[in-house]
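An instance as discussed:

___
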Amino acid sequence: MIVLIAEAKSMGRCDETVGAEQLAAHAPAGMARAGAIMRRLGAMDAAEVAARLRVSARMAAAALRLAYEWPNAAAGARAVEAFTGVVFKALDYASLPEEARRRCDDGVGIVSSLYGYLRADDVVKGYRLDFTTPMPMGTAVSVSGTVVSASGTEASASASGPEDAWVATGGGAAESAVADLPLWRWQREATTDTLLEELRRRGDKEVLDLLPADAARQVDWERVSEVARVWHVDFKSPADGVDPGLFFQDDGVPGDMDTEELRRGLADRGRWRTPSSNMLKTLRGHLLREILLRGISSGTGLLTLCSDRLLPLGTPLSADRLVFCV
């Protein structure tokens, strides 16, 4: 089972010395596309970068500095250690036993707005972008099917340039005629292609989606579900005054409610609430850590996973959705 998590907005320095052999063995599949994005970013002035990234002038200057430093291939960091956001802090990769780290390196995919799909041990460089950052990356398919360049002029669909070959997917008809689009649109097809290749390489038939909404849009789930079972995860907290015992026995094992009763209970907004954004990130990292520590390799193995923070709601409420009570 491949477990998908998202990049973090915060990153470490990514300035470790990287040898040619290490880079060759752990180069991201989307390195060329990432380079095209960083070159485009580096050609902008600070005011445009600040507007696109919705950040201060100081942060825009930092983003530009990273773009200027991009050609230095001798510096970087492993992806799982480069990102320092809440999910990665909860995962705490450095404290995992060696066997769990090996599982992480081989079986965890990180969805990145810059690189597309990353293996946990891919070598990355620092960047300050996110999935919604609008970028004019060459071409987009118009409503009529014409390929439109970033400047709005018609271009050949078979253009061979590294940027002209980009095609945006996943948007509505009204958006697709515009070439200045969020990164998730430009990256969706390539990200999905790499994920499918990873599934074939590993012989896997399951994917666990621990992605927030912005990152999840960068994956074409319809294509993935044609070759693998996709498990999506929800986290719910009992509302104030609601007894979790309605759904769980005293020993933490799911109670006697049948699936339909659970579905009705979860649909009752008065009984459940969704945790805060930061708590959701913490829970995703915690769940991933438990999966790696326990060697869980299938979504069905999560049906009985109980920890000090998570209790599964027994039988999945649908064929592809798991719910944890927190």
The chain has a mean pLDDT of 83.
